Here is the input.
Amino acid sequence: MTEERSDSVEERLEALEADVNALESKLTPLVARDVPLLTGGVRALVDGEAESLEELPAAARQTAENRREARAQLEAVRSRVAALGDLGAERTSKEEKIAAVLTFAFNKGAGESKVSVTPQEIRGCTGVSRRYAYDLVEDIGSSVTGCRVREAEVVQTSTGSKRKPKALLVDCEAVHAESEAVSRLNTGGDE
Here is the structure.
C-alpha cells in the first residue's frame, strides 16, 4: 500500500509540476512583455515621474488634479470669450460695436483693472465715424455697468499743461463680472 501511495503522490507531484510549468510558460511573456508595456503606458499618461509601481497611484492622482485645474481654467477662458462675443466678426449692430469696444478695452488693459478708451480708438476698432464714436462713448458710459465717461479736460503737469481728450473709462473687472452674470441669466446656468 505504501508503494501505491507513493505512486499516487508521485503522480500528483508530476501533475502539479506540469501545472506549474504551464503556468510559468503563460506568465513569462506577461511579466517580460505585458507588465512593462502597461507600466510604461501608465507612466506616459501621468504628468509626474514614477520610478516604481508604488509611485504610480500618487502620480495618477496628481495628473487627475492637474486635469481638473486645466478644465476649470478652460471654462474660465470659454466664459470670457462668450462674454466678449465674436472677436473676429465685423460689427454691424450697436450691440456688436459695444462688444468690440469692450473687447478692445480688455485687450488694451492687459491685466489692468481700469482702462480709458478714446473716440479715436473706438473708430479704429469699430470702423465708425468720428461723431458716432463720440456717441458710443456717451451710450456705453451711461448703459454699461462698470463704464463711465471722462469729459475732456486740461491738466497741469510739471512742464506745463496737457489736454486729456474725452474718453470712456472702463472698469474691466466690473464689466467682466456683469457680462458673466448676464451670460448665466441668458443661458440658464453656469455653462
Residues 2-45 form the longest helix (44 residues). The chain has two domains: 2-72, 91-187.
